[in-house]
Fold each of these.
Amino acid sequence: MGLHRLKLFRVGVSVLFFALIAFLFLDFRSIATPSVTEGLLYLQFVPSLLKFVNAAAVGAAGFIVIVVATVLFGRIYCSSVCPLGTLQDGIIYLARKKQKRRRFQFIKPHNVLRYSILALTVLVPIAGSGFLLNLLDPFSTFGRIFSNLVRPLVLVVNNAAAIALERLGVHTLYLVRWAVIAPLSAGVSMAMLILVTWLAATRGRLYCNTVCPVGALLGLVSKVSFLRIGIDSGACKGCKLCEGVCKAGCIDSGKKTVDFSRCIACYNCLAVCSKEGLRFENRWKRRVLAAQPDRGRRGFILNSGIYLLGLAGFTEQTKKIIQSKPTTIPVCVTSPVSPPGSGSVMHFTGTCTACHLCVSACPSRVLVPSFLEFGFSGMMQPRMNFHSGHCNYDCTICMNICPAGAILPLTVEKKKLTQIGVAKFIKENCVVYTDNTDCGACSEHCPTKAVDMVPYPNPVNKRLKIPEVKPEYCIGCGGCEHACPTKPYKAIYVDGNPVHKLAQKPVVKKIEEKLDNNADFPF
Amino acid sequence: MNSYIFHTENIFRVREGYYQKIAVPKGKRLNEAKVHELLLGADVFINVPILKHHSSSTLTVGMKNLMGVVWDRSYWHRNDQHQCIADFASFRKPTLTVVDAYNVLKQNGPRGVTAGDVVSMKSLIVSTDLVAADAAAAKLFGADPGDIRHIQLAAEMNLGRIDLDALSINRIKL
């Protein structure tokens, strides 16, 4: 038995993880609940690590589970839990179907490259940028590919089908609003997809052993793992079948060695060997490798320390938003707006891995991948874009699904008082001022009546009302900015709070009016 | 016969393709609008607004409610919305207007901030004259219909009566 079936088990687990996680990013009918999402993403390494460190969420210990599992059994993460890994496996499967009998070969390890990328990914945050980590984190890369590229396709199919079925009188499907197109994020996602596809189709899981920082890190851990796959030189007949199916290219059948730091635990070799030439070896018993100092391991521990320090101590300074459109009355945005629950722009940009799960899940499409609003290193991290939508007053979806803890859960009541920014009114752009006509679209959408309409003395002596902002009640939801009809420049906009504040609870004087059944009609 | 009851919040077939461009010949600021095909195809048109305070239009009653059957509402906001509301009333007169004034949002409209904004008035206004229904509702609300600009404008455009004293009204108490 036994070892042969391990591959089948691994395939089952990986397909399940892949399908469920992919579904989270495509779930435009919002079927998955936040707790399901949280459970599914618990084991994703980088988001869990960031949540644990930055959000002090002790419960988010999924990455510790992965490290322990790797210490025991090697990189099972890479072939079971990691959705980008399974995506590559799918590509490899299809590519091998096309090129029949294509076999893998042992590849020399690209240690300098992979450990340099790991070190950079770990060190760059110290310089104040999580950009490299966000770019290379496999979960976030997968998320961006699905959110920016696959999801739009799914929406096209859904909407086309919905329109077609509607003509036939079937209303099972309904039209879904398009996602906002973010060219930078879509471009980066496409570039990563092309890179991953090309590497997978031609060189197996080379990406995981050269580019992926999680792969490199877990590779270092697996160097000291309890169990490792090794070749039993007595049983092995030297048929090279195992090397031919090794996607990681880590089996050297000539020398009868396995570079277990690059083994992604796919167990294809175990499945293909009929002579029981491959086996799990208990490394801790033999203590062969422990005699020499393990430089890689020292580096790992050192780097981890620096890394954690860097994450906890340094994050980027927010850069000023770049005003691209010419304005007669400049819209003076001093800070981009981070979503409610993120606490501050600093916490958000220091923790978010730009996986875009919140972008996919946001029902009002207000969360949009940023360009340079959060600065270079915050590229692609979602921001509140009030031109595309506004934050629903009662909604807490993003904060309940964020796997990295960049957006932390708030109760609905707390969320309704969390001031992520403040509305600023530019009277000179307002219809009431320019045209002397009523409008009030901003106040109409304001959930707290922080934007209220007050009498406006005007040159034409009409009974007009003009918006007035009471900043203490404003929560920065952007309803006013989104609804403001003036073009091309809005007359009211939200300026972000770099550190979120608490708004005052709206005080409403209760109307004291009793129904008097005996009263006369007023007309 | 096709008959549909319009209540703005309840139209679920919302997609621009369902809205067809129509002309508003009597409109002063609103000369054309995209109107939902359900309204265009209906033989009988019953308008059922609820009475509420509104920060943009002062009040929502019958005429304001019809803003819900057009596609580009922001055009109205940019282009003298009271005039646009009155203009659109000239496009098609509802067969019947039924103003639901049972629970009335008296302040902080149109969405309200707390339940304290709502007053139980347990009233209903039914009229074949859209403008008269709006004027009566304004009175019920505690406002002078002449102060609600779109009601005044609609009356000036002879789309209905604002002078309630001259009308025969059945006042029924239950």
Amino acid sequence: MTTRYRLVLVVMALSLLAVGAVAIGLSVGSVKMPFAEVMAGLLDPAAPGASVIRDLRLPRTLAAFGCGGLLALAGALMQVLLRNPLADPYILGISGGAGVGALLAIFFGLGVAGLNGFAFAGALLAILIVFGLAHGDGSWTQTRLLLTGVMVAAGCGAVITLLLSIAPEERLRGMLFWLMGDFSQGVNPTYALIGVAVIGLLTAPLARDLNVLIRGNDTAKALGVSVSMVRIAIYLLASMATAVSVTTAGSVGFVGLVIPHLTRMMVGNDQRVLLPTSMLAGGIFLVLADTLARVLIAPQQLPVGVVTALIGVPVFLYLLNRTRYQ
Amino acid sequence: MMSLHGSSVDVLKAIFKVADVELRVGQTQVSKALGFEVYPGEMLAILGRNGVGKSTLLSCLAGLPRGEMAGDILLGGKTYQAWGDRASACWRGWLAQKQQDQFSATVLETVISGRHPHLNRWSWESADDRALALASLAAVGMTDFAARDVLTLSGGERQRVAVATILTQNPTLYFMDEPLAHLDLNHQIEVLNLLRAKAKRERVSAIMVLHEPGLAHRYCDSALLLFGEGEWLYGSASAVLTADNLSRLYGYPLLQIENPGADGQVQRWFVPA
């Protein structure tokens, strides 16, 4: 089977699964609704229950799909950029920067717009600091980039702990939920959906370059890849994907690490197949995880980050062991 | 008419020119005013002691900058920069000293990555590319490994896959950093025979770092010795690869043993005295 054929097959299968996952996300919730009613509410704003579907479940499900796609894509890109299978979207401090921004906004009691604005600004600042420092001497090596990012992340972690320890009691819960990743506070799916589409399309022409880049910078250059340009491009694309997702839903963990690995085990490491597959699989996974977060202890809700970790960790360990013994 | 892959022997236009190359890495002066030319079908060996800068020089010559370098390196009359990354890669191949795989990939996927510079951004590998990759695997005797994961290969097997990859890239000029590393004796001769045949038949050229002066003498037309402190000696293999020069090169007295080869050429072997 040629790679191109495999790509078409996998993308078609996952697209169907994605539609199924979104349907499940729309049908399940603390208010029980038959599927016909869900469809009616989706299509007709005047139908009974339409507001639950259209105002609550639809934006939330779509946001989960968009963020899952963004995070899985960002994780896969970071793993190539750092040539390290353990890299995830947050490894270079983007979630830390966003976290500092978001917690400051909550600390000062700003509204949702302020929170999103601060979180996004924090993420951008972290991206620029890491880029500027790692690029400083023009070497832009993996080790330097990784160390700079990890240090910026550690610095942000310290500021986050500081903010948590001095925050007033009534704001603490909001802060913790934000840090764990959460879709329950009136999410807006627009940016995540646009982001996943645009960033997905922009990475497509680079995918074969990444196949070569993964074999080392010199080998890639000798095979005709403009290494510095491509690496800067994937750093910026992965960072923007992470920033948009973190701004939409906080730092949802494990999707960006686990999903690229799971898809790699299933479809191999050809980036032309892996990137779109990861993106779709990440979206599906996060929609299902968020659905569980809504219903596991309904009417109370869990932060989705808890669910992704609770599912992601054992599944990942199981698959890792299974492949080793084969 | 000039043709790089032409079969005529009288094509005497150098495809690679090095002039006044001054290379320094940290405290090490690798070369001073280095100059030589490589012609179609020529094989050049670079020899020198450990740490003298053979790999560094080879990387620079292959257009992968290291350290501080001055001077001219012209591939087909133009600098690498003038060609651009992708066009350069259609001309010259580079075999790294070490293959650093971090992720799983099949052997065939790895080998077919050699086609990268020849494909447009939106094209996929064609049946021809696949056939070329399989032929390269066959040439190094790795056909049965096509579906294997590169992470599971032994050092020698991985090295043969790397050779197959550069064969699939099919450049005009091969830069090879220790192409014989990890290889058994039979595979060493196999790889060198393969290159020699390609050089004769397709007029491709090769510049390689070698550790065995006897093999360099047997397979290469010319040799470049790096003595350290920027000092170098370049010339035809038979003129340069002598017991005197090599004893000085390695800082240890060597004996030269001559042995008539099957092809009528006199082989020279060097053993520590």
Amino acid sequence: MIEVRDLVKHYGDVKAVDGVSFVCPDGQVTGLLGPNGAGKTTTLRMVCGLIRPMRGTVIVDGHDVKKDPQSVRRSLGVQTDSSGVYPRLTPREHFRYYGGFYGLSGNKLERRIDEVIEILGMGEFADRRAEGFSRGQRQKVILGRALVHNPNNIIMDEPTSGLDVMAVRETRSMIRTLRDKGHCVLFTTHYMDEAAKLCDRIAIIIRGRIAAFGSPKQLMEETGRDSLEDAFVQLAGGEEGLLVSGHSEGNNNDRLSAAGRR
Amino acid sequence: MWRDVANIWRKEMVTTVRDRKGMTQAILVPLIIAVFYASFTPLLNKAMFERSQKPLVIPAVGVEYADPKLLDTMHEFGITLEGYEGDLERAVERGDEESGLVFEPGFSEDLAEERPAQARLITNSTAGGVFGGAFSDSRLQLAVSVFNQKVAAARVAARGVDPSALMPVILETEDVATPEQEGALWASFYLPILVAVVVAQGGLFVAIDVTAGEKERGTLDALLVTPASDWAILLGKMGAVFVTGIIPLFLSLTAFWVVSNVMPSVAAVEQGALPVFVLWGSLLIGIPMALVMSVAQMIASVRARTFRDAQSAASPLVFAMMIPGFIAAFAPPKALWPCLIPLYGPFAALSRMTQAGHLQWDSIGLATLGSLGAAVVLMAVATSLFDRERLLYAS
């Protein structure tokens, strides 16, 4: 389980993240939605312990990211937003490398690598060097390296971005499978239909603050809209990108977090 | 932590070794430099020797006025004067001839009557390249000088004076240099420069690849979200830079030594073989230097965002290493204490050893101590720079 508590991160005058709180329970998919520059990636980086929050903290499976970032990282599997892989390593070697950081070795690691390769359908290219891989193949390598240690909590930053239809379907199916197996999945996306289909709960982040938090149905009901996209646009302040006045109040996060826990 | 260090080191080594282009460059360039340095002096000696032995034909205007004994002396020096008709000065100026002599009528008579007999040497020091006009001139001057000594000796002897009166000082030369010192003499100039170039360039490509390369490929985030500590990441990567830095050093020094021991037979002039202690001495001072350079290269490239940025940031390090190498090559120190100075000390130790003709453990020890001290300080700097948040947002 991931608990984000009142995270604040400012860069000079820019309030990248300004008091963000939400909870991602096990066995659920939590979506973090927001326009570009809203603070999604900064929030995720604070969850992973890559960025130190100015205020607030993140608790992952009982570990406080401020006090014990290494234990937090050990509890997480992170699919980063960049699609970079090592071109001179095969996917199997990628998984062996990343698995090694989590204390896996020998037969146990090799068995787990075989499992990941099978789950992700990478058999055909598991032992080919990654140079020249398609975007979809690279994305599988990135997903595989996040899953190789079978983490309880999985973070995905725009996992379907730039993928073709089949790869998108496979990735979405993978996210559902992870949820069904009881993992806590936190992911960001720009695709509203994807969020509506996959997410049990959604946190909408606007200008570094949580503008709304709840199930897709709750968000649509709250805004009186019949699609998540329309609800999102309204919560984002309409076409002008203005914050909904009620959500700009200081106690907004608490109210929405509480709503999300219902 | 050490398990993570080994994991990172192994991965960096595998990806480096698989980079055929980079590896070829990393190995070939130092080898070429080593072979060039090792063969340059012997080839230069060979060219000078051959030029000095080659028969020289000098065009001469008025050769019929020249004294036959002068012509005989010139023959002894492999110089033949050949009659020339035309504008000799112009021909030399154009570079058609390297040099030429002009004898005026009455030359032989002046000589016979013990008046100064004048001839004119027309020369173009640039004609014929480095081994051209200047070489012809010096051979001619030497032949004339010997002829003058012979004539002067004959003249004073004719007056009943001992010809040795013309040589008030006789300088006897006794070279006490050992064969090892002779063999290491020219290496004492080239080796510091070779070690500087190879150590500075050796692991540079890998240092950039494991830092800025990670950012450019988009793999840095994935590494930073692992539980590996900052130290483990830094040490693992630095280990790879260090190892890939000393491999070219070892290869280039071996090549230098092998070529240096083959070249004396090519040189055709007396030149001692390069003693093996020079190879060991260079390696012993070069390995700690490679460690210092690995850390410095990491520091220079760790905050760079792209490969090109890192190259720009790390380039000055090459000069930081080469300048002390050049100083030691041109002005080798006599005292022991300069060996302790980081960067300069190893070169000072190398110069002292090549001059001494044997390994000097005190020089090596001080140089190693200085290098390790510098590495520790730089390591502290590198650790302070290796901050995950700053790395992600470094520009």
Amino acid sequence: MSAPGRRILVTGVSRFWGAELARRLEADAGVEQIVAVDTEGPARPLARTDFVRADIRHSLVGKLVRGLGIDTVVHAGLIVDPQQAAARTVHEINVIGTMNLLAACSGADTPVRRLIVKSSTAVYGSEPDDPSFWTEDMSRRGPARDGFSRDLDEAETYVRDYEIRHPQVAVTLLRFGNVLGEVHDSPFARLFDLPVIPTVLGFDPRLQFLDEDDAVSALTHATQGDCRGTYNVAGAGVVVLSQAIALLGKIAAPVIPFIGGTAAMRVLERLGLVDFPAEFVRLLKFGRVVDTSRLHSELGFVPQRTTIDTVMEHGRSRRVRGLLDDQAPYRYEAELEEFLRSRGRRQPDGPAATTSNGRAPAPRRRRTRSTSP
Amino acid sequence: MTRAAPARGGSRRASSNGHGAHHTTGLAPVARPAMPAVPLDTLGRLASMLAPSRLAAMRRDLPATAMAATGMLALRLRDLTGRDVIDLESLQEVISVYYRANAVHEQHQRGEFDIDGFGFDREWTEALMPIFRVIFRRYWRVETGGLENLPRSGGALLVSNHAGVLPWDGAMITVAVYDAVDRHTRALIAGWFGALPVASWFLRRSGQTLGHPDDTLRLLRGGELVLVFPEGVRGTGKPWSERYRLRRFGRGGFVDVAMRAGVPIIPVSVVGSEETYPMLADLQPIARLLGMPYFPITPTWPLLGPLGLIPLPSKWRITFHPPVTVAPPQGEDPEPWRVMEVADSIRATIQQGVAEDLRQRQRVFRG
């Protein structure tokens, strides 16, 4: 890319992905300017990043791109954990936001030369007769079963359309697997935080995990390089759910029935016992494993931690402990308080800001069901 | 990952010919390294919490104590009667299998095991193998032929006829191959098995995977022995009146995959599986309701309830035919006419093999 400094626009800095990426890019001397666009403040204190409080659904983004001569756009704002916000907000950000962001980068005279989009392996779905490894060229056979996956599909379709219309722009689409780690909040992190882990009776899915550091490294690597294409990103190796639970020293409780599991999960969710997206039960039944050979060979990125290392490291960093382990008492709240104080600011009480940086100390806010379309 | 040194080989030898070097020292409980009082399962965990750890240790050693007592009894009976009333070697076999399975189970409880990307757990499968070997030898008295046609290394596609409602033929071919060349067979299963509780993980854990062309190619290129039943559920859901008549061999997809992977095809003919569950009728409405490909009526099922699931003790023969080398595709894709030609010739080989084996087998249930 152009030698004297790249000008990068990053979306989604109010959440883990965007904020961590901006922080890594700040350390890169080859990056002249970083512009962060989001409706909420950054999840991490950022030094030389210019923060613009704007909605990516607004046409202002287009003016920003042209006015600043942005050459690289990183769309890290795609929500891949539907529990991060209400269903309608997720739809607005993922579909309308992506559409508008791409519109802002379009046109024959666009200064944009690179587009990096963070997506999720959730686009492959999770069915009993899935192939053992999903490669990037495959797509699931049936239609999406829930609104979140449909939205993700639509967002990816916009990205593909953009790629066809703008051959001069190198588009990179990264599909991330399940991310675990100290800070990042994800459905599996919430599952593994439970004292007894509910599993689906008679099922033991194959899963892959990616460490949060590796996730951000992959995104940074793709941003700094100029390799186009679609890539699955996940840790090496495969773990079955029962093994992950055993490695964390927890107890599995096969309480989710294999017929009507989603409905049972809804009941548990209403009772405030669990907080999982709709398609999560299917993942707990049938699992999902992606082929990451293209990530290694073409993008030249190899995650530091394997799937099993990620699970074990997650257990250590989150101080996840089993019911029966006699270790020191859980001191997470104190640590969290300290962390929040060190940041010197409180999260504004907005729908997208619930758990962008670790666990909120208060119990999770219940979403009103009526908002789902 | 750390992993306890597996007792591979030793216990397998013990179970395969009954002359295990490991357990010839006597019938007293086999000396085991002192283990931390890690309870075996959830119930065990609770038990050890409630009761002194002594109880848990007793519970753990109970089977061994029982075995030792049986051993003493066997010796006493031999002294009294002058002949082996209880087969001591079988007893040792059972003990070694029990400890092997127990060790693997404990490793699993700690999460210390490796699976490959398809979900195959080698140690776990090898710990289970003796159970299937007993069925292979004592129940169906399987006779094998053409074992020299099995390759000791490299990928190959085993193609077999399929019959008998439940896929026992796959398990028996797996045992035959494992005992002959010490390799694990990776069978391709129908997609709907993935939706069945227990079966979904059991089949994957023991090395099976779904019959997806991409999966097959991946396994073959990885140098695995892949077993495929081109008849699929059309073969297992065949009525009794059509026994030993092979159904259509899919759409020749298996030949296509073998050509792409550049591996030989080994035709396998199985006789005996047809008689395990003689399917007298097929209740399609119930099958559709349950989402199954067929709902069989056999002389014992569903008349005797769960007992009807016990297969009949027919006499089996499994023959491995000489490998068929398939030429790699000239261009990008294998030519369809060549694929169909090879598929038909493989089917003919298996059909002839089945006829030959039927001639060799004098009685259906005896022998």
